[in-house]
């Protein structure tokens, strides 16, 4: 049952396709015209004779006899009304006969009794004639087509050769990325020029507008689809023109801190202080607030110290300044600074500032040494740094546990300096730490990815 139903559906489709083959063909080729001839406003004369009808009939018969596809049409005229009968091969032929009949003077109306034939032999002959005509035209225009193809290929190859002259473009733009971009644009211009010349040789320049329109629509659709990619690429161009940082610079980009490894056409690569890779899209980099800690060799650090409210603040500030002056790596100019930051319930917070030269000293090491020596100086001067006071209510069981822990602490013997194996000079060392810089250099040597950061480019 299912097979019979399938066969019947296929037969119905084939019959429908055969019946409407001409309509589909005419629709594809763009030759479709209205089934009836376009009506024009004519004044119908009062006087009409059989002689006039015969003149119209003879005129139409002579016209149709000169046209190959209209020779079989029979024409009958009565009182200015033309009746067309017969078989024609295509619907476009039928519409052509109707249009010619309507254009003859004295014709009031055209009655269409023409039928599009579906005879297999006739259709095959007509199709063969069309195919033969198309083939002859193609053969006749083959030399011109080959010449157009040759011009297009030569333009393509010439543009590729010129775009490959990198030294020439680097004379125009020192930035390698911009020079490469200029080469690609030049190649594209040569391709477009070759296409225009080829279409002009074939007298198909009208197609160029259609192609450009289609390319614009496709480009718009693709642009929305890959908007982020396009945005990153444009941001790469702008960042490569004016570099906001250099290789090995310590930067903070949108909350991500690390040393710069490279700038690619899509992203900026950092190595964090922990040795991790951070990849940030260039569109984010271009719009983000960038903090460059390396651009200025002098950098200021700070830390807070709490002292007892009974202490002499001036003496504590003076001692902190004196201590900072003795720490190796802290600059005397700009001068260190100690301010009273906050007055608390049980302590007063001092904020201590100091400047270092990042080219010769490590920021983290100098800050660590400054904190250590300040704490040591305050202890030697009996400046109390109180701990926060809390009122805690404990239960009996918890109280017993606390007493046991207190006994354990009393029996604990701290390690002496002689038992510590790490040399003191390693702790107090404030020289620069180049571990991350070494990782950056190693990363660049192992990767063949092009870096858009160029020392010749302008810096922001």
Automatic annotation (TrEMBL):
Pfam families: BON, MS_channel_2nd, MS_channel_3rd. It comes from the Bacteria. InterPro entries: BON_dom, LSM_dom_sf, MS_channel_C, MscS_archaea/bacteria_type, MscS_beta-dom_sf, MscS_channel_2nd, MscS_channel_C_sf, MscS_channel_TM-2. The chain crosses the membrane at residues 138-158, 178-201, 207-226. Keywords: Cell inner membrane, Cell membrane, Ion channel, Ion transport, Membrane, Signal, Transmembrane, Transmembrane helix, Transport. Homoheptamer. It is found in: Cell inner membrane; Cell membrane. Residues 439-460 are annotated as: Disordered. The keyword Acyltransferase does not apply. GO terms for molecular function: mechanosensitive monoatomic ion channel activity. Belongs to the MscS (TC 1.A.23) family. This is Small-conductance mechanosensitive channel. Residues 52-118 form the BON domain. The lineage of its organism: Bacteria, Pseudomonadati, Pseudomonadota, Betaproteobacteria, Nitrosomonadales. Residues 1-21 form the signal peptide. One of its GO terms (cellular component) is plasma membrane. Mechanosensitive channel that participates in the regulation of osmotic pressure changes within the cell, opening in response to stretch forces in the membrane lipid bilayer, without the need for other proteins. Contributes to normal resistance to hypoosmotic shock. Forms an ion channel of 1.0 nanosiemens conductance with a slight preference for anions. It is a multi-pass membrane protein. Residues 443-454 have a biased composition (Polar residues). Its main location: membrane.
């Amino acid at each position: 049952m299912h097979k019979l139903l399938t066969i019947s559906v296929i037969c119905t489709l084939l019959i429908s396709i055969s019946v409407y083959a001409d309509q589909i063909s005419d629709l594809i080729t763009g030759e479709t015209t209205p089934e009836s001839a376009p009506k024009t406003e004519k004044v119908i004369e009062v006087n009409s004779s059989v002689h006039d009808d015969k003149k119209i009939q003879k005129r139409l018969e002579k016209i149709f006899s000169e046209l190959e596809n209209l020779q079989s049409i029979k024409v009958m005229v009565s009182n200015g009304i033309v009746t067309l009968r017969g078989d024609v091969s295509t619907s476009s032929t039928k519409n052509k006969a109707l249009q010619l009949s309507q254009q003859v003077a004295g014709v009031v109306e055209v009655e269409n009794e023409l039928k599009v034939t579906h005879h297999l032999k006739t259709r095959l002959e007509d199709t063969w004639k069309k195919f033969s005509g198309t083939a002859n035209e193609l053969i006749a225009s083959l030399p011109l087509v080959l010449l157009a193809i040759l011009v297009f290929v030569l333009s393509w190859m010439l543009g590729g050769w010129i775009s490959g002259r990198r030294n020439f473009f680097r004379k125009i733009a020192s930035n390698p990325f911009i020079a490469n971009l200029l080469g690609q644009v030049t190649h594209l211009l040569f391709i477009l020029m070759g296409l225009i010349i080829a279409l002009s040789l074939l007298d198909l320049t009208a197609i160029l507008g259609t192609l450009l329109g289609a390319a614009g629509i496709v480009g718009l659709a693709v642009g929305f689809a890959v908007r982020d990619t396009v945005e990153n690429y444009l941001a790469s161009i702008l960042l490569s023109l004016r570099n906001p940082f250099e290789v090995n610079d310590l930067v903070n980009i949108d909350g991500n801190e690390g040393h710069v490894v490279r700038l690619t056409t899509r992203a900026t690569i950092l190595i964090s202080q922990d040795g991790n890779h951070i990849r940030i899209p260039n569109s984010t980099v271009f719009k983000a607030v960038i903090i460059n800690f390396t651009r200025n060799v002098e950098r200021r650090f700070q830390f807070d110290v709490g002292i007892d409210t009974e202490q002499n603040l001036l003496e504590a500030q003076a001692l902190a300044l004196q201590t900072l002056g003795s720490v190796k790596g802290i600059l005397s100019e700009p001068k260190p600074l100690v301010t009273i930051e906050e007055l608390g319930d049980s302590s007063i917070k001092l904020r201590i500032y100091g400047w270092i030269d990042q080219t010769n000293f490590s920021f983290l090491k100098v800050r660590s040494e400054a904190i250590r020596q300040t704490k040591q100086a305050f202890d030697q001067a009996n400046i109390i740094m109180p701990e926060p006071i809390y009122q805690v209510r404990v239960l009996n069981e918890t109280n017993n546990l606390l007493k046991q822990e207190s006994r354990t602490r009393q029996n604990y013997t701290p390690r002496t300096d002689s038992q510590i194996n790490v040399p003191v000079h390693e702790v107090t060392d404030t020289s620069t730490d180049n571990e991350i810089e070494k990782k950056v250099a190693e990363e660049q040597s192992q990767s063949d990815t092009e870096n858009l950061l160029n020392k010749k480019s302008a810096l922001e």
